[in-house]
Every structure is written in C-alpha cells, then in structure tokens.
Request: fold
Amino acid sequence: MTPILQLSGITKRFPGVLANDHIDLQLNEGEILALLGENGAGKTTLMNILYGLYQPDEGEISVRGKPVQVHSPTDAIKAGIGMVHQHFMLVPVFTVTENVMLGEEPVRPGGFLDRPKAAKRIREISEAFQLDVNPDLYVQDLPVGVQQRVEIIKLLYREADILIFDEPTAVLTPQEADELFEIMRSLAKQGKSIIFITHKLREVLAIADRIMVIRRGAVVGETTPAEADQNKLAAMMVGRAVNLEVEREVGTPGEVVLNVENLVMRDEIKQIAVNNVSFDIHAGEILGVAGVQGNGQTELVEAITGMKHLESGKITLLGHDISKASPRQITEYGSAHVPEDRQRDGLVLPFPIYENLVLCTYFKEPFSRGIILNEEKIVESAERLVKEFDIRTPSIDTTVGSLSGGNQQKVIIARELSRPIQFLIASQPTRGLDVGSIEFIHKRIMDKRTEGCAVLLVSPELDEVMELSDRIAVMYRGNIVTILPADQVTKEQVGLLMAGVSPDVALQQIAAGETRKRETTL
Reply:
C-alpha cells in the first residue's frame, strides 16, 4: 500500500547545527503517528518543512506517491496538508463561520460574501466528524476545547487529508483532552491521517497507532503502544533511563510565608481577571494552582511578583507588605521567580549566558564592588552553574537566545535557585520541555521544598500539579474555586473543577461515572 505521505532523506542545516539528518517518515491513510523527541531534537524543524515554513537542503516530500514542492503553507494546503497549532489562529470577535472562511470566502453574485453557504458546509463537517460546533457563535464565547475544534474544521473545510497536531492538549482540561482524542479517532476512522506531536507520554500511548522517536536530528527508532511503555519511550527520547516518578517526602509545613488577601487584578483590557482571591502558603509547602490558561493565573503571578499594580487587596511576604513593592524589592525579600514566558520575562536573549546568570545579583558582592563589576567572579560562578545545572552550551559566552528552550529554562532555574530564597514562584516551569528537562526541574523544585522554601506552582499541566503539590487551588474565571489537599482529590475531580463545575457537583459526577463504569463491567 502506498503511504499517503512520505518524507525521504529530509536534511536541514543551520549554522553549526544539523537540525534534520536524512530523516525518512511515512504516514499511512487513517493512521495516527506520534512524533516524539527532546527539545531541539528536530521535530519542529521537520514539521515546518512539511508545512512549507522551511525549505529542506536535501530530501523529497511525496503525497499519495507523487513528489510535491512545498514552498509555503499555501502549497501545503493545496497538497492536503494542514496544521493545528498549539496557539490558536482565531479572531475572537469573529463568528465561527467568519474564522473558518477566512481566505476561502464563498462569494454570491454581486461580490457579496455567502456566509450561509459557508455555515451550511461547516454544519455538515461538524456533523460528519462529530465536532459539535455552532457556526453562528462568536469564538470569544467558546470554551478552549471548542475553539480547538474550530481549528480542525478550518482544515477540513479546506479538504486537508493530512493533519498535524502540535502539542494539541497544552491548554485543555483532562476532559477536553479526552474529547479531542475521540475526535482524532473519528477523523482517522474516516480516512484522515494524523501526525501528533506531544511531550506527554501517556497521551502517546493512549492515542497513537505508531510512534517515531527523533534524537539529535535523526530517527532513533519506531515502536507501537503495544510494544512500549513510558519508561521505554523516555529512554528512547533522552538516550538514558529517566525517573518519571517524582520523589517526595511527607512535608511538615511551617510558618506562613506568603499571605494574599482579597486580591483583585485587571487584565490588559481592564476587565477583572483576579476576583477577590485569598490564600496563604507555608514554609516547606507547595501550593499548586490548577486551571486552564487564561483564567487569571498570569495576573495573579504578576501581582505577587510586582510586575503589575494591584486593583485592590493586600499581599504579605515574610511579614513585608509587598502590595506596592517593585520586582527588585520583592526579590530582595527572599523570593525567586521562574516566569511563564521565559524569553519575554526571564532572559535577555542577546546577552551571553554568564550575564543572564547574575541578573538578580550583579550589584552584590562578590560580583561587584560599588559600580565596578567583578568579571572574574561572574565567570567563575557561571562555569560552576553551567556544570551543576547541566546547561548544554559550547561556552558561557554563548548568547542565551541561541540555546534550546530546555537549556534557556535551565539558565533561569540556575539563576533563581542558586541563591538563598524562602519563596519560589514557578509559573509553567516545564512548559514545552522534554522528559529529561522535566525530570531535572521537578527535582530542583522538590529540593527547595525540602529545604523549607514555600513554593507557588502555577501550571496548566494537571499531572505536574498533582505530582508536586501538597495542596491544590483551582482557578476558574478569576476565582479560586476551592483549595484541597493533593492527596484527597482525584485528577478527574480537579479536571471538572477547572471546567467550572462546583466541588459538590464534581464529586457527584465522578461518583455517577464510577457507578456506570461498575455497572458496565458487571
């Protein structure tokens, strides 16, 4: 049988880097192929070549047995190739119909847009693939999971047969992720072929027909869910055994380190983003904040770190009122911050590694005396931290912007955790990282907890929150729905709470689901 898609000998070189090394890939009709690899392994480069964003130095792309030239996303769509991006490409103030028809607008005689025709086709696609999307609703009013379905409809509207899903569950609740998998299975049953890129090994084992692993730009092996488990996949990706279980000891929380009272914050368009939120965190404790991205977590962290002014409320850190404090003052009180957006808020990309490592301490001894920097001490410290935190770089003089995402994150972790701190804010600390980097960062966070540091962990990754936290606060539409001990709550319950279900109803729904499961089994 001729594969629907075949990549032969795809090679791509950047200055000093062989990103793709003669990669062969084939995708069969109706198949879900999972593509795994570390950060910087070459997955994104390969998909960018397939989607026409990069041009290969060597190799050939064939669709249904015929070579094709893909010089742009327009060429990819013409060849039946579409991509569902991690960050949705939708216009919030447009309807579903208007978003889907952009660039493919049907026109009535006289030059008027034929919205009813487009809406009719969207309904047909939605029904055929069990997507359940109303074409007349505005995108801004849709839940995140439904917005993702709109992205899928956009590709099916353009008659794509080969669908690339890039980290598709990054912003979904567990329930929405399960619904997406059902949609993917429905697409595959009806002949669509899918390439699924993710770093979540459980998802790969749950949805893929076949798994291909790339390491350092080359294919290192293929397997299937029947032949593999998470440990095997992690070892294939990293080239060594990886400990996927977070080692944690029973903690004994100490004094209150951070207290937040009746916090109110507005977002960039002046709407209430954090609504009268109160909580505290103790020494030696990790409080995890669970929630779908966009429910006030970003504004909460901006308030606690001094990056934005409060609308009202009070924040106390180690007895200091920091409600109006600057980021440097808050840092000087003994806090550390691993930001959500490492490139925008955590690093100075054109600066070398050694300068980024002292951004919080360059004005202190031994790194300076008055206004004079002690370059020797700065370099000596950087060399030590690069080794201690396993930052993969040719030199400490390398600009931090040229590092992979995982190594950029390690620079931030090294800078923030290598100094004396009593409070750590870790906002999406493993976002987009591979299993090896995740293992490393999780251990460092747990080490700080063991040392008596109070930790605020903010992450849309529910597995991460469940594994690391002592208590879990669930945020929904700017409110903390509830705060529960991590060992007394299930993943299913937290997922429902993240979707806005009240705690009591969540427990009832889980109990009803378990009852139905037992009845079905019997």
About this structure: Residues 514-522 have pLDDT under 50 and may be disordered. The first strand starts at residue 5 and ends at 14. Residues 280 and 438 are 27 Å apart (CA to CA).
